Input
Amino acid sequence: MGDVNIELRRSGFVDWIWENAFDHWIGIVVLVPLAVLGNLLTHVLVFRCGWTLHVSAGDYYYKKVRYRSKAAAQADLERQRELAAAFPPPAPVMLPTRGGSLRRPW
Output
């Protein structure tokens, strides 16, 4: 079983690639203020200033859980960690080899 990773983020905020935005003047003047305003409006209007826990365990388990406040999200961290750790990894898949060859007969 893999490690359980939990990340607490504001709901509605996007991870932007800021390095590319500052290469040109249009990025600084137009795109950065629009991105910040869009993030803020999404966070306030759509998600009502909520917080999101991103829980992942290995490559087989990922879950987003939304909360109304940061305190509620932080209070539920250990429970979400236990739930992700208890989730069993999928069984390994064995592909049929058809006698050692994957070619299909014509």
User: Anything to note?
Assistant: The chain has a mean pLDDT of 82.
